[in-house]
Amino acid sequence: MKKNRFYRINKLLEMPSEVYLQVPKITSLGFNKIMIENYKNILEYQDFFIRINTSIGIINVNGINMKMEEMTKDDLIIEGEIDSLDFEKIEN
After folding, report:
1. For residue 41, is pLDDT > 60?
2. For position 16, what pLDDT does the model report?
3. What is the SS3 assignment for 10?
4. What's the rounded Cα separation, in Å, for the pair 70 and 67?
5. What percentage of the chain has pLDDT greater than the value 90?
6. How confident is the model at residue 46 (pLDDT cuts 50, 70, 90)?
7. Is the pLDDT of residue 40 over 80?
């Protein structure tokens, strides 16, 4: 009941769902940079592979010469020659 009321208030205020549901939002900034919002933590970090934990699963970023350009508690920017993104969904 409490969650349903919270959802209706946010809907009335026209807040984006990723804000109140804490789901990740991935934004591509060209072919060499991505921003991931609403992540939990970084599971693995190498220059060719980065694994990021989120509330709904794991995001795998694959590429070459990758580095974390900017990181805050809410979002991070990954830069490098990004080849692909893979998703590992959490089963409830």
Report:
1. yes
2. 58
3. helix
4. 9
5. 63
6. very high
7. yes
- Distance (Å, whole) CA 55 – CA 42: 12
Find the radius of gyration of the CA atoms of the chain.
15
Task: Report whether 17 contacts 31 (CB < 8 A).
Answer: no
pLDDT at residue number 1: 44
CB atoms within 10 A of CB 73: 6
Q: Rounded to an integer, what distance in angstroms lies between the CA atom of residue 92 and that of residue 83?
A: 29
Domains and CATH numbers, the chain: 22-89 (2.60.40.2000)
Tokens found for residue 1? 């009941």
The DSSP-derived string for the chain is -HHHHHHHHHHHTT--HHHHH---EEEE-SSSEEEEESEEEEEEEETTEEEEEESSEEEEEEEEEEEEEEE-SSEEEEEEEEEEEEEEEPP-
Place of tokens 């089963």: 91
